[in-house]
Amino acid sequence: MLVPIEWLKDYIDLDVSTEEFCDRMIMSGSNLETCEHFCEEMENVVVGRIDKIEKHPDADKLVVCKVDVGQDEDIQIVTGAPNVFEGAYVPVALHNSRIPGPLHGQPKQEGGVKIKKGKLRGVESYGMLCSAGELGFEDKVVPVAHKDGIWILEDEYETGKDFAEALELKQAVVDFEITPNRPDCLAMVGMAREASATFEKPFKYPDTEIANENGKGESKDYVSVEIKNPESCRRYVARIVTDVKVEQSPWWLQKRLMYAGMRPINNIVDITNFVMLEYGQPIHAFDINQVKGGKIIVENAAQGEKFTTLDNTERVLSDDMLLIKDAERGIAIAGVMGGLNSEIEEDTTTIIIESANFNGDSVRSTSKKLGLRTEASARFEKGIDPNLCEAAADRVCRLIELVGAGKVCKGSVDNYPSEAKAKTIDIRVDRINHVMGVELGREYMEKVLRSLEIKVEGSGNIMTVTPPTVRQDLLEEEDYIEEVARIYGYDRLPVTLPKGNNEAGMPEERALRDLTRESLCGMGLNEIQTYSFVSPKGVDNIGIAEDSWERAFVKILNPLGEENSVMRTVLTPNMLEVLGRNYSRNIEKAGAFEIGNTFIKNMMDEDELPDEQYSLCIGMYGKGEDFYSLKGILEELLRVLGIKDVRFTPESEYGTYHPGRCARISVKSKMKLADGAEPLYDELGIMGEIHPDVAERYGMSGVRIYCCELMFDAVKRHSDRTVVYVPLPKYPSTSRDIALLVDEDMEVGKIEDVIKEYAGNILESVKLFDVYRGKQVEEGKKSVAFALTYRDKDKTLTDEEVAKVHGKVLEALKEKLNAVLREM
User: Fold this and answer.
1) What is residue 354's three-state secondary structure?
2) Other Cβ atoms closer than 10 A to 694
3) CA–CA separation, 752 and 747 (whole Å)
């Protein structure tokens, strides 16, 4: 937001230097980007009057001017400008002068451009007639009337007078960065309100009182307003001005717009732009003769409707774009740009002044789809107070009256379906002091808040506050604390340490992931990271069933291609791609792991966010690797993570893995069960050898690949890394080895569960040390051998005590599992 200091002084009596103004505004919370001093590099440039023009003797495109610059005699200046005429008042750079530049067709020079007398095609020239651009104004702000050629002044001035002084050009302009939560500061009035509070100076609103509403009839006699979409248009105010005279604006108005970064066009357009910059409320003017039926209708456009905007571009609209229409057609795209079919022309005599409030989201969407962003749309996007509409419309009419551009009709047509109201809350004096670390009185706080036009009521420690409706950012107590703090001055706040014990620590889930990485890297695996955006064909390649939850994809709205069109539900396809890529490059042995997010679509409510959770995938292949290599890695990892009572159960129906070499990984549930009830197990994941068909799809035909995938949320729930001190045993242990004949499909985990259940507390450990299939074991059977260690922490066990417990274990194994001692 460009803020000319001289313009700001219309609303507040500033008596500080530009430097102090900038410093204090920064300390009160305004984000200042730059401060530019205009025309500081202009020296010896004066007002001149062209008294006589003659043709150049040797150049058809040059003329010789006799110019009155306040000296005893006119000076001679040669120029090629096409717009000069006798009697014109112009800026003249005399001999040995300096102008900001740049010269036409040349780059800008630091320190400006030095002008000296010289000869042009043999004729002496004792200076230069200047354009607005050569005096430092950017092309985009040069008035339309002076865009090409010399700057011709509209008024008469004393010749020979310093040009910058005569036109009051030496001004400071401050550029503030306005954050999205402060749209009220995209206006001179908003910045003046901030300066008023910062410098404790009274704030004066612009004059909106119309002296003579002497237009023909009343506004309601000319136009009616109908809002068909009140959600997108909260208010629409229309006023009528008759006897309009479209001409150049007075210099003071042009100057304000130029320093604020806008090009002057004509008096009507300039006044609407001026009020937009002043109030932050965009204004538009229609030629009423082009508004069919005297009707203003606010409704959505038809799908595919074509509309030509003021920039003479035909645009195709969609049915979610808001359009201003008359009785027959569209005349403006709401909040973005007016239509060519209703623009103000030189012969326009009666106009409609539109001051409306359009929904920011609607304007942003329309602007983005059309690729058309304007000063108006930028303001509507951030949100504007509907209560500004009437004051802004009145201000436009007052300025039209002031510059003699027309006659204002009585009243307005104001369609305001639902009035905007501010949120009133209670805030605490002691809370403000606590957060700021100071001791301020309630009286001072009230003074600060009222300087920002915040209404304050209540007594004691509680202040009941109501903000002006332009302050849409003031919603909670913390917002008001910030207001008091910034006006008090951030630089004045004492440095205080926070009170209380602030314990910082790594979240448990993050700690588990880091421990997993450390452990797996220590076991010789390499960590990989792959994309979360994948192809839906990935689950086809690994043989996932059609009705599996692993096909509940979250689709990408704007994918780069099918290969990145959905978010992954499992990590295994990515792991196999990495292993396949390594194998294709003659890497004979590889082991890798990935910890990453997976995303499962909410099938109950598709509008809800997907289920996002971490998973761990391990993959390996090569000489020496087999099912038990991977199982050993998992057992060690789960031990490190503090997960006990893990079991591996055979799985033959999972399409990704070899049906005879796959196992579900589960852990005993923490749910409390009735006495004697079978324990429940919660699933952690799955592991096994990849199915040969799946391996072939990834270019690894004939290669045995071993993978697993664990759900990290389940790992977290069952992880208990609490270290309990156990003293060294005082009493000796006793060991017993048993070799059992069991059915071939008997799981070792079930045998261990029975042993632990019937051995009781004196069983210190049970370990499998042998599995045998051979001539001495009948077909369909296998021999499994365990080492059992018994120990009592309170005494030395006798052989009789151990034998009794050991006997119970053998009886239970035979009864429950038909497992009998093998005869040696």
Assistant:
1) strand
2) 21
3) 9
Say if residue 314 carries a ligand binding annotation.
no
CA 206, 212, 215 angle in degrees (round to 5)?
115
Closest CA to 494 of 485, 502, 503: 485
Pairing of strands 113-115, 89-99: antiparallel
Candidates 3.40.50.1820, 3.40.190.10, 3.30.56.10, 3.40.50.150; CATH matching 2-38+172-199:
3.30.56.10
Contact 273, 257 (CB under 8 A): yes
Owner of token pair 């002068």 = 97
| Helix or strand holding residue 78 (H, E) | strand 75-79
Q: For every residue of 1-64, which 3-state class applies, written as one string?
A: CEEEHHHHCCCCCCCCCHHHHHHHHHHCCCEEEEEEECCCCCEEEEEEEEEEEEECCCCCCCEE
Instruction: For 473-499, write each residue's pLDDT tens digit.
Output: 999 999 999 999 999 998 899 987 766
Q: Is 414 annotated as contributing to ligand binding?
A: no
Concatenated DSSP letters of 220-254:
GGT-EEEES-TTTEEEEEEEEEES----PPPHHHH
Is the CATH code 3.20.20.210 the one for domain 734-821? no
Q: Is 479 annotated as a binding residue?
A: yes
CATH architecture of 425-491: 2-Layer Sandwich (3.30)
Q: How far, in Å, CA of 363 to CA of 705, rounded?
A: 56
Residues linked to residue 736 through DSSP beta bridges, in sequence order: 788
Q: How confident is the model at residue 500 (pLDDT cuts 50, 70, 90)?
A: low
Q: Which CATH architecture has domain 508-718?
A: 2-Layer Sandwich (3.30)
Whether 673 shows a pLDDT value over 70: the answer reads no
Q: Is 58 annotated as a binding residue?
A: no
Place of tokens 């391996």: 695
The tokens describing 187, both together, are 């206006």
Beta bridge partners, 296, equal 225
